[in-house]
Specification:
Structural class: alpha+beta
Number of helices: 11
Largest sheet: 13 strands, mixed
Shape: globular
Mean pLDDT: 92
Distance between the termini: 26 Å
Radius of gyration: 24 Å
Low-confidence stretches: 1-30
Length: about 625
């Protein structure tokens, strides 16, 4: 391990010193104002958002008693109070978000809402009978009739009629336009493409750069093949409606999200890879239905791989059995192999996180403020199995774990958020950051992460550059490609800053993947340690800082962890002939999981089958190293 320079900061130490990564502080950057009066920071600010949000326009959210609409979602994101499906008021505890996209399901968009409106013809459809009954048994039976028809792609034509979809699509656009405030709060028009071939998950969120959007969204009812979606996006782009797609919940896809053949069983080729990367340069790595970074089966030497895993298929109770093709890190490794053997890589993804809330509640990712994700279906602690059933005070023997439970809600996470480094909080600047993959994901806390790679970055005495302008001139940021330079090994600049409302940072890591002897490999390196610790040069691990949590109160061990972790690192295993990727993972000290907070409020022990604490984290987008000529 070569640590050219390292700095860890105690609470507040980062505030008074100029830094190339001073978050949204602009006193050390060139700041100008656009013609519209919007501040422009040439060194870029960190903005946090949620690009996966459902409201009562989504068929499943409406059936979960969610009646709030896109306007309510934007109000919630700005810090206002809205009404939960259970009737209680809910709001963020922390600060507002910077940007949001409402992404309701395109399939039957707005149809359930119209089926509950006596003035609309859908309310007279036989399928709507009993669906909104006040009799729970009648409503439940009607719900499962709808679900069976939906999964069989046998819904009545009226539920996908152009006028029904068009009215809801208009509501989406109008709300985005009303709440978009350049420089203060950015909204994007978007939707979810909910493809489920054979009941498996190929979902994507589609995000538009501007208010120029197609007349109707392209839905999985038009085609379940994402390649058809990408081709439609190519057409939209030619017509002036630029868009990108973001796949999500690969963890619940049972291996098909990153399979190595096309959906039509034709082999991949360079044209396919270019089409895919042009239209979906990002992947959602964490959200309510679990984290898709990696799995212990795929990464047995990664001690932190068992994080907020959901091992069920999306939308069903079937177990995931195919982990390869389901997790992002393995996809990145498979992409390296394809580049090595076939000359193309369809998996050069940057990372984002988002919530996938179905409560019109973007950014509702706070562990201590968890109030469900899907309306009434998981709207109480008992429904999500975080307190004992039937008002018991202890847990019964044989309490099922998340793989055995009949409902998936206990394994659901409170995650996540997307961070971008952009010059302004505007649609164009944020969309450009998403397109170039200068993005990072968090499991909820607003941890800021910066990551650069280049050559000869350290100044005299190993001093880290003190300006982003200098870093931009000498290095590539996250999401970029680093080319080979003869006789030189790259240097990696890593920086993380804690969320003041969350835990202190414990360690910064770099995850490396590479190709060696025709095989893809991976290794996790600790590169910066909290509490004055140093990385062991043999194990590449920081010493344990013994940060713990009092499970009776969720109080963390005091005076453990750092505000900021910052280092310039060189890979001790670097081989200039090996194609590789690198990404940063920042870990907080342990904190209570939402299920433990539920138990404390209930005065009962936490569910013994669930992790009582978690280590919240952030991931940078990767940087890819391209070897030189052989």
């Amino acid at each position: 391990m070569i640590l050219l320079a390292a700095l860890t900061a105690c609470d507040g130490a980062i505030i008074d010193a100029p830094s190339p990564v001073s978050g949204n502080e602009t006193e050390f950057a060139e700041v100008t104002s656009t013609g519209a009066g919007v501040a422009f920071n040439s060194e870029r600010n960190a903005y946090f958002g949620d690009l996966h949000v459902h409201t009562g326009l989504s068929f499943d959210a409406y059936l979960g008693n969610v009646r709030t609409l896109p306007e309510d979602a934007y109000r919630f994101a700005r810090g206002e109070t809205i009404t939960h499906a259970n009737g209680m008021p809910v709001r963020l505890l922390g600060p507002p978000l910077d940007f949001v996209a409402v992404t309701d399901h395109a399939e039957y968009l707005g149809a359930m809402r119209e089926a509950n409106d006596p003035a609309r013809r859908l309310s007279k459809d036989p399928l709507a009978a009993g669906l909104f009954s006040e009799n729970p048994a009648e409503a439940n039976a009607a719900f499962f009739r709808v679900l069976a028809r939906y999964r069989a792609n046998d819904m009545p034509e009226g539920f996908k009629a152009p006028d029904v979809i068009g009215r809801a699509w208009g509501i989406v656009q109008d709300a985005a336009e009303k709440y978009n405030e350049p420089g203060r709060f950015t909204t994007f028009v978007g939707y979810e493409f909910t493809s489920e071939p054979g009941g498996l998950n190929l979902h994507r969120n589609v995000l538009f750069r501007s208010a120029t959007v197609p007349e109707f969204p392209f839905a999985a009812l038009d085609s379940e093949d994402p390649e058809d979606l990408w081709n439609k996006m190519e057409q939209w782009r030619e017509e002036g409606a630029d868009a990108l797609a973001i796949p999500h919940n690969s963890n619940g896809s049972d291996g098909i999200m990153f399979e190595l053949v096309r959906r039509n069983d034709e082999p991949m080729d360079a044209d396919y890879a270019a089409l895919r990367m042009r239209n979906e340069p990002l992947v959602e790595i964490t959200q309510v239905k679990g984290t898709s970074d990696t799995h212990p089966i795929l990464s047995p030497n990664d001690e932190w791989s068992d994080f907020e895993l959901m091992e069920k298929r999306v939308g069903s109770n079937g177990d995931v059995t195919n982990f390869r093709g389901s997790y992002v890190r393995q996809a990145l490794k498979d992409g390296l192999l394809l580049q090595e053997t076939e000359g193309f890589n369809p998996f050069r993804f940057g990372f984002v996180g988002s919530s996938d809330t179905h409560n019109s509640a973007p950014g509702s990712v706070e562990e201590a403020n968890y109030f469900s994700k899907a309306g009434v279906v998981d709207g109480t602690a008992e429904l999500r199995s975080s307190v004992p059933p039937d008002r018991a005070t202890t847990w019964p023997d044989g309490t099922p774990n998340s793989r055995e439970a009949s409902k998936p809600y206990q394994s659901w996470s409170s995650a996540g958020l997307v961070g971008v480094w952009a010059e302004s909080n505007t649609r164009d600047m944020i969309f450009d950051a998403l397109r170039r993959k200068e993005t990072f994901a968090t499991s909820g806390p607003r941890i800021k992460v910066r990551f650069f790679a280049g050559y000869d970055l350290a100044g005299e005495g190993g001093v880290i550059p003190e300006s982003i302008a200098q870093m931009d001139a000498q290095a590539v940021p996250m999401g970029g490609d680093l080319s080979y330079q003869e006789g030189k090994a790259p240097e990696f600049f890593v920086w993380g800053l804690r969320d003041p409302s969350s835990a202190f940072l414990q360690r910064a890591q770099i995850v490396k993947g590479w190709v060696e002897d025709g095989q893809s490999r991976e290794q996790v390196f600790d590169v910066a340690c909290a509490d004055g610790g140093t990385v062991d040069p043999e194990t590449f691990r920081c010493p344990d800082n013994f940060a713990m949590v009092d499970l009776a109160t969720c109080t963390p061990t005091p005076f453990k962890g750092d505000v900021a972790l910052r280092t310039l690192w060189q890979d001790p295993t670097f081989d200039p002939d090996q194609r590789a990727f690198y990404y940063v993972r920042i870990l907080e000290n342990p904190t209570c999981r939402w299920s433990t907070w539920d138990a404390i409020r209930n005065g009962t022990p936490p569910n013994p089958t669930l992790h009582p604490v978690i280590q919240e984290r952030a991931w940078s987008s990767p940087i890819w190293f391209e070897p030189g000529p052989t």
